[in-house]
Specification:
432 residues; 5-stranded antiparallel sheet; 39% helix; 21% strand
Length: 432
């Protein structure tokens, strides 16, 4: 099988107007860069073959600066524009997971409309991915491993080398006299992927020469079976998931356990999340979905949190505790914490108008100091003809989930609560 002609066929099956090549500087991505440079020359008549490359500088190795320089030199050689993006790796869930998350989030910032990300994953990588999914106890979705074309983190991805082995890429690199870097961490068998690559899979390949091809076939069978399940459940899934990050639990208890887990996997896949293990899914069902009605359960999965409120699951990011946060309003624009955006204020002859996101509230002017808080407990008169009520009941009457209640800016004049921006104002009470 010819590398160049095979990739050419794949490119003609995409609708992308350009390709962003993920370039680490290692053997695989260097071969990929070379092949695309050749294809650009061969297919000069195709206007959509515009190329760029991106190198993610993780800063995890003392050689990271040299790798970035190597990639820069490569791209000068092939006359392909290069983006170098430095990232901070969150090691909370392990270096491998953190680096992967940081890498794809950085790439997403640069991927243009009608552009496709191209990665250098090959047949050997596919086997490793399958085994890692097997180790996690993944279902069909996880065991389906990687496809030549898919969507990840909301980005269209092309993996044109999936049918080729690493030895084939090495042969190409030697014939083309390519130079590449070697990441010293690839020899560290503390990492699961390296342990498989260096210790386990060589033994299997020595015994069974076509082992990688067999794994690829199994992965494809799993993928196709998952697609069939998705097709059969599509109408039911649509009833549960009308908003991407929400999953309605109506009639969910009536389903068999297999149907419950299948629908949850479809929802997680819809939101581009890695598939949890069977044990984790069971924990999600028992501890969150079937928790007591008055509970506010939650379940963390990678960098997201699944929460339940009023017979619905919500997928959110982890939130900081803002209940003790107090901000003084001393200028017309105030930056709010935890990605809540800005609060701005405009004034006219008699009033102050506060704006936050798509909400606004108009209050009378005051000489008292103005502050913004997020936590409040106690009774509030939020309607002129109703008595004071506990603020918890007000939030409930407004259908505000518990985790959002402490993320809505509360405006205080001195120590007096005046408004929850966009939701209610506080009226003076005659109660003693």
């Amino acid at each position: 099988m010819d590398l160049l002609s095979d990739i050419e066929k794949q490119l003609k099956q995409t609708s992308a107007q350009g390709f962003l090549i993920a370039l680490s500087g290692g053997l695989d991505s260097t071969v990929l860069l070379s092949l695309f440079a050749k294809l650009r020359q061969k297919l000069a008549h195709l206007p959509h073959l515009s190329l760029r490359a991106i190198h993610i500088h993780h800063g995890l190795s003392q050689n990271a600066d040299n790798w970035a320089k190597h990639c820069q030199d490569l791209c000068v050689q092939f006359q392909i524009p290069l983006i170098i993006e430095r990232v901070q790796v969150d090691k909370t869930n392990g270096i491998e997971a953190g680096a992967r998350e940081a890498r794809y989030q950085a790439i997403k910032k640069h991927l243009q409309t009608q552009e496709m990300l191209v990665t250098a994953h090959h047949l050997n990588d596919q086997t490793e991915t399958f085994f890692l999914a097997l180790k996690r106890g993944s279902g069909l979705q996880g065991l389906g491993a990687m496809q030549q074309q898919s969507v990840l983190f909301g980005m269209p991805i092309l993996r044109p080398l999936l049918d080729f082995t690493r030895p084939q890429l090495e042969d190409y690199a030697q014939k083309e006299k390519l130079n590449w870097i070697t990441d010293e961490s690839n020899e560290d068998n503390r990492y699961d992927r390296n342990f498989l690559r260096n210790e386990i899979l060589p033994e299997l390949r020595e015994r069974w020469a076509h082992f990688d091809l067999a794994v690829q076939r199994s992965a494809q069978h799993c993928f196709e079976q998952q697609q069939l399940i998705n097709d059969l459940l599509s109408e039911i899934f649509a009833q549960h998931c009308q908003i991407k990050n929400q999953f309605k639990l109506l009639q969910f208890r009536q389903y068999s356990p297999a149907k419950q887990t299948a629908l949850l996997r479809m929802w997680l896949a819809e939101n581009q999340l890695e598939m949890p293990s069977k044990r984790q899914l069971t924990q999600l069902i028992n501890d969150v979905i079937f928790a007591k009605e008055d509970a506010n359960p939650q379940f963390q999965i990678v960098n997201k949190v699944i929460r339940r409120y009023q017979d619905c699951l919500y997928l959110t990011k982890p939130f900081s505790d803002l209940t003790k946060c107090t901000l003084k309003l001393e200028q017309n624009t105030l930056s709010l914490p935890d990605d809540l955006g800005n609060l701005t204020v405009q004034e006219n002859e008699h009033n102050l108008i506060f704006y936050w996101q798509d909400y606004s509230v108009t209050l009378e002017k005051t000489d008292l100091p103005i502050s913004i808080r997020f936590g409040y407990s106690g009774k509030v008169k939020h309607h002129p003809k109703r008595p004071r009520e506990d603020i918890k009941k007000i939030w409930q009457s407004l259908d505000i989930p518990p985790w959002q209640r402490n993320r809505i800016p509360l405006i205080f004049y001195g120590d007096e609560l005046k408004s929850a921006v966009g939701f209610f104002c506080v009226f003076k009470s005659n109660e003693k």
